[in-house]
Amino acid sequence: MKFPLLFILIPFVAFGQIQIGQTIDGEAEGDLFGTNVSISSDGNVIAIGAFDNDGNGINSGHVRIYENQGGTWTQIGQDIDGEAIGDLSGTSVSLSCNGRIVAIGASNNNNNKGHVRIYQNNNNSWTQIGQDIDGSAAQRFFGRSVSLSCDGNTVAIGSNINIANNPVSGQVGVYRNQNNNWVRIGNNINDAVSANVLGTVVSLSDNGSTVAIGTPFDVGDGVLSGNVRVFKNQGESWVQIGNDITSEMVGDQFGRELSLSGDGTVIAISSLVDGVDENNQIGEVRIYKDEGVNWEQIGTNIVGEMPGDQFGRGLSLSTNGNIVAIGARLNDNDNGISSGHVRVFQFQNDLWRQIGNDIDGEMPGDQSGISVSLSDNGSIVAIGSNLSNGGKGHVRIFDLSDTLLTVKEEQSITSRFKLFPNPAPSNVTIELPEEQAIVIQDITMYNSLGQRVLSTNETIINTSQFPKGIYIVQIRTAEGIASKKLIVD
């Protein structure tokens, strides 16, 4: 174990997720619609990128924005097309909180200089705000990643190749809208080491004052180990907050995706490789909290299901940092090879626990989960499947409300059920007050690795069958789910 046993990962299935409205399909085969998605705070508006769309020339790319109108996803305004052939517009997309402003990256514009355009919804027509924000020179791939502040007035832009500073080192610039003119805040954030590819992914806090930057190919702790840094705007200068957040293993590609909480104090970070076998690409996600001096991990690593899943290729954190949606685009499930899936986890009582069922892709090869985006409160998730229907791609949106357990609900149940004796040398009894007429529907035990070791309806468990250590006992009732720590001695 890399981390203390106090933090235990345990999955559970509550109620099912419900799809909202119809599946939103791409325009044409090969568009790769859904490679990137971004949803508004309330989950009613979604921006979807299709960077291989040919609307303004081959691979010019486009973005479409939809609104939930009475349970039907209806396109708002026109397609926002790329400027020219080969632009790959829609490489990255980011919506403001109210869904009325969208930032769009076109990383291959103008001989791969790249640029970003920001648009506003004016009477159901998308009108550009200010000038194009252009890359500084050819082969910069400016716009590889974008992230908007909540009000849409600040944008962080990643350029994951920056030859002027150091070959393939990358850089990030943050810009503010000043009277319809995008003005850079402070200096660009650069990487001093070549080949690190800083800026592959960026995430901005709601107020635009904190930016997280992923460098998945950082070589500081080993080849392709990866690295994440967080910076805060202090007097128009970008100052690093806390330590570098680094991977422990060679080849992890730590920082391949990341997502920052609204206040910038919690961050979810994925590695497409698990750090044990760099070829298996099972993937994992770690969540960290700013503790004032350093970033400290909360909970254990959330690990993918099977080798090759690329768990963490899609990643989105709720505004409060307590709910995370994770896509595994190459997962093989009952719907076929590489159909993909998404899992959603909630953090309560120091535990990351799966809520609801796996949300599986529909068909073999769909690669569902290549992109995910959560509403502010984590109750709605958008999921991109860019290779469905011959690469036409589609997006589905799900309501997770019935799967979420509030802190108050869990604390209420937890306070009423007992485990005794604890520590338990041979048997443990699970008890709820009879006068409250709460019926235990089922009981599950998990070991310190988050693996299920027992499922039962019996309230007396023979613990002598288990090795000594720390376990989690989870009960499910009609009122909800609750868990307690058990020590087998």
From TrEMBL:
Secretion system C-terminal sorting domain ranges (all copies): 419-488
Alphabetical list of Pfam families matching this protein: FG-GAP_2 (PF14312), Por_Secre_tail (PF18962)
Keywords: Signal
Family annotation (SUPFAM superfamilies): Galactose oxidase, central domain
Keyword Transmembrane: no
InterPro entries: FG-GAP (IPR013517), Gal_Oxase/kelch_b-propeller (IPR011043), Gal_Oxidase_central_sf (IPR037293), Secre_tail (IPR026444)
Alphabetized PANTHER family for the sequence: GAMMA TUBULIN COMPLEX COMPONENT C-TERMINAL DOMAIN-CONTAINING PROTEIN, UNNAMED PRODUCT
Protein name listed in UniProt: Por secretion system C-terminal sorting domain-containing protein
Biological source species: Dokdonia pacifica
